[in-house]
Structures are given as C-alpha cells and as structure tokens.
Design brief:
Layout: H1 2-14, E1 19-22, E2 28-33, E3 40-44, E4 47-53, E5 55-60, E6 63-67, E7 71-75, E8 79-87, E9 94-100, H2 103-112, E10 126-130, H3 133-144, H4 152-169, H5 173-180, H6 185-198, H7 206-213, H8 217-228, H9 232-249, H10 255-261, H11 267-278, H12 282-291
Antiparallel strand pairs: 1-2, 2-9, 3-8, 4-7, 4-9, 5-6, 5-8, 7-10
Helix pairs in contact: 1-3, 2-4, 2-5, 3-4, 4-5, 6-7, 6-8, 6-9, 9-10
InterPro entries: Homeodomain-like_sf (IPR009057), HTH_AraC (IPR018060), Tscrpt_reg_HTH_AraC_N (IPR009594)
GO molecular function: DNA-binding transcription factor activity; sequence-specific DNA binding
Pfam families: AraC_N, HTH_18
C-alpha cells in the first residue's frame, strides 16, 4: 500500500542500523532488523505497534500473535512477552514503529469528547487486528514529521491526538479504553502489576498484592490471569528471570549471584527455571547472546 511504502521510507532513514531508535517525537520509537531475529524477552509497556515492512510475531504465555503491515499490535498493560522478527532481509529489512500510550491522555480524550467510557473485555490485554486506514494514515503523518523537525513541536501533538481518537473510536476501542479508565478492573490488575514490578525480588505476598489492587485473592487470581494469561506468581517469575538474564549477559553478575539478586534462594531451582524459559542454562544462554546478533526490542 502506498502509505506503508512512504512510512517504510521514513522509518528506514531514522532507523539506519538494526535495533530500536528513539526519535525527536515523544513516545515514538522506530525499529529495523535486517534478518530474522532471536526471540527477545521483554516487559512491554502499553503501546500501539505498527509494521511498515516485514513480519513479526509476539508470544504471551505460549500463545503466538503474528502481525505485519495489514495488522497492528496493541497492549493495554505491562506484559512480559517474547517477540521476534520472522521476515526480513538486508535488501528488504523489517521496519516498524511503536507509540507508547499514556493513560492520562487517553482518559482526557474520553472525557473531552464524551466517548464511551465502559471498560473493554477482560480477556488478555494484548490484541492483533487489522489496521484501520484512518489509523495508518494518521500514524504515517506522525512519523512523516521526522522529516520536518521544525514542525514537530506544533504538529506532533495534533497527529498523536488524532491517532488516540481513532484508536478510541475504532476497532481497537475496547482494548484502548482499558488503558484509560482509572477505576476499571484492568486498572486494578495494573496496580497489582506495579506492586510486583517494585517487589519482584522479594518473597511473593498475596495479601500485599491484593491490597494494592483492592481485590480479594480469588478475584485477583481470576482477573489477573484473564488479563495477562498468567498468575501473579508466574508474572513475578518472568520478571525475575528477565532481570537475571540481563545481569548475566551484561557481565554485571555471575549466574549464582544473579539468581540470588532477583530472589532465588536455590541455585538449582534458578538454573532449572531459567533453562525452561530461555532454552539453555544461564552461562550457555549468555554466551550465545554475546556471540550472536543482538535481540530486537519489541516494536
């Protein structure tokens, strides 16, 4: 499609090398990959992700969601997901962009334009769906402002507002409303997630998580799994292992120390769970990552 050809051309200029690139436009990031990538384990914030060229897939707790230039990815809470580029060549690299979504801005738009403020469905807070033409057009205009840096301050907020409005009134509306509503069930789960993120290396305390979320234990477990597709304890384990991997790969810690630092008392349990998630023991996995191509952030 012509708009995606133009979008790909702009992204290619501002993502000249493989990996993630910040842009002068707040909340906007662009990505390039010249080859299919290894799986990247990340904690992904609420965002709208679009592909201009190539194909990608993300995995959440064993369920895979592929997407390309005909579809877009939306996440409405912080989720530990695995992503990889599955179609890219040096001649025709993967090119994508991500717009981080601000709950405050979305909530203000709901109120200002008197949009439907009912919460969306309580199933997994991740969706892939066809990209409406009006959303891709607005997104192309936002990214196109990278070629007009003097116009960014005046026009980027307007383009972003249009994108948010289109998302709140189109095919992604139910999922996007989840981010905006401060008193909805999804927000209660988000508060539970915030507690786990702040205390991921401490013993898990269901009473403290329930208090943070203002939910009973049974309600928390049911709705947390409905939104994230995992239990609160599984979520904590994902955060622990991702942080341990970062520490080991960066040479900041050896495997035993990294496991202890993220909350494991048993080195054997740490090694066993690390291997189950990443496919290899800590030292072998770290050596492979250091020697191979860098993982690509989700986008």
């Amino acid at each position: 499609m012509p708009e995606f050809d133009a979008l790909a051309a702009v992204i290619a200029r501002y993502a000249p090398t493989d990996g993630s690139h910040e842009t002068p436009i707040p909340n906007l990031f662009v990505y390039r990959a010249s080859h299919p990538t290894e799986p990247a384990h990340v904690l992904h914030e609420p965002a709208f992700c679009i592909v201009a060229q190539g194909r990608k897939e993300v995995e959440l707790n064993g369920v895979t969601y592929p997407y390309d230039s005909s579809t877009a990815l939306v996440l409405s809470v912080d989720l530990p997901i695995v992503g990889r580029v599955i179609e890219a060549t040096p001649e025709k690299p993967y090119l994508g962009a991500k717009l981080s979504l601000c709950p405050r801005a979305l909530n203000a738009m709901l109120i200002e334009h008197r949009l439907d403020q009912r919460e969306g469905p309580s199933d997994v807070a991740l969706s892939v769906a066809p990209t409406p033409a009006e959303v891709s057009d607005a997104f192309a205009r936002l990214v196109g402002l990278l070629d007009a840096p003097n116009d960014i301050a005046a026009l980027a907020p307007l383009a972003e507002r249009e994108i948010l409005y289109r998302l709140l009134t189109g095919a992604f509306a139910a999922r996007i409303r989840q981010i905006a509503l401060a008193d909805g069930r999804i927000n209660q789960v988000s508060r539970a997630i915030d507690w786990i993120k702040r205390n991921f290396n401490q013993p898990f305390r269901i009473d403290a998580v329930c208090s943070a979320a203002n939910m009973s234990p049974s309600s928390l477990h049911a709705h947390f799994k409905s939104v994230t597709s995992m239990s609160p304890l599984q979520y904590q384990k994902q955060l622990r292992l991702q942080e341990a991997r970062r520490l080991i790969v960066s040479n900041a810690r050896d495997a035993a120390t990294a496991g202890h630092d993220v909350g494991y008392d048993s080195p054997s349990q740490f090694s066993r769970e690390y291997r189950r998630l990443f496919g290899a023991p800590p030292i072998r996995d770290a050596a492979r990552l250091r020697e191979g191509p860098a993982e690509l952030s989700i986008g």
